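Exercise 4. Each item below gives a protein and its sequence. For each, produce the structure-token representation.

Item: DHA2 family efflux MFS transporter permease subunit (Oceanobacillus piezotolerans).
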Amino acid sequence: MGDQRDDVSSYERLNKTPIMIVLISGAFIAILNQTLLGTALPHIMNDLQINESTVQWLQSVFMLVNGIMIPVTAFLIGTFTTRGLFITAMALFTAGTLMAAIAPGFSMLLSGRILQAAGAGILMPLMQTIMMLIYPIEKRGSVMGMFGLIIAFAPAIGPSLSGYIVEHFPWRTLFFMILPIAIIDIIVAYFILKNVTKQTFPKIDVLSIILSTFGFGGFLYGFSIAGSEGWGSMQVILSFIVGTITLTWFILRQLNLKQPILEMRVFQYKMFTLTTALGMVTFMAMIGAAVVLPLYMQNMLGFTAFESGLALLPGAILQGIMNPITGRMFDKYGARWLGITGLSLIVITTFMLAFLTTETTFTYIAAVHAFRMLGIAMVMMPTTTAGLNVLPTDLISHGTAVNNTFRQVAGAIGTALPITVMTTTAIPNRGIEGLIHGVNISFVVAGIIALIGLIITFFIQDRKTEQARG
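Answer:
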């Protein structure tokens, strides 16, 4: 514990504001980039003469590569300096953005997305690790709340911003817009960012990296294509079999290695395990609605891409505003009651979205979604911080890598599951009402998942609760 205090006191002398600005700018464009393409896909299809199953790879490959890169970040953080790793990740992201912007055809555009995802996959866990290291425990809630503001705001403005841009400008504008911000961030990071992570030079275990790639990659690929191919297709079943076998082998190998790539022993901390599960449930709830509601509004109610993006905007702004506030509340009161209140809100509002009709108004969708996002703001960052707080300093980078990896898997499930439920439970011969029936059933399933999350929150124990009992 003495080491942890010494580390914190040495970091107290750091001027943290410029470091935070560099990190948050990087996070903002990395996450914004993930959600920008959704409403632009029809335009890219027309321009590059490709079909739906091909174009959706621009989304799926981003999640896939992101999910594969994250488990390796704990190893990278231990091997390279903070500054070197951040600048390399941003450079990869920038090179990918440039490739995508000037891509003459689909293969180069896809390659650009792969590079972007590789950079973004390193950035997210690295940023969280830096924040957990340079701030003392009592301030981490507020800091992670500020970080959560960006995580919430970027995907929120993504669909409406993208909808507006592709209606008025070529789709390449989306990439050209991000490019200068990424370049400026690299230059500023070069001069401002300090090395705060410790270089422990862990031995590289090539087999672990291969197993991790096929394990997480298998699951992410399976969930990514389940929506279009169907859960019973050979491709999906094979992906899950490969994912299960290699992931089990990967976990067993990590437990027996002296220097594991991903330290699975973080799950020995009960609080970390519970909050990781909660984070996954909440992320699935958030991503699911962001995918299903625009489809329902555009395909069944006749709204434009821009309007369906606008419906999600009040919720995003509310979540953005609330993240720093819930961060401060976490520092004061802990995660338990925030989690219980937030998940109760998520459960109620999710079931409220299970009764949509052809008459449902824009205002109803925007208002219910806004309250849902308020619930998500109360759960996501506070529970993540509570889980990481119980870990010793040397396990924090592993904790953030594990947390981000499982959240990425939850994101892939949260994208594929609602779409699959929606398409398989729709009743096509009943017209629009039959299609909306599928949307409603997908929200019933999401509500049941949120209910499981609510039950988990009752098992959370805050430090303050434990101290009072002790």
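Check: Confidence is low (pLDDT under 50) at residues 1-9, 464-470.
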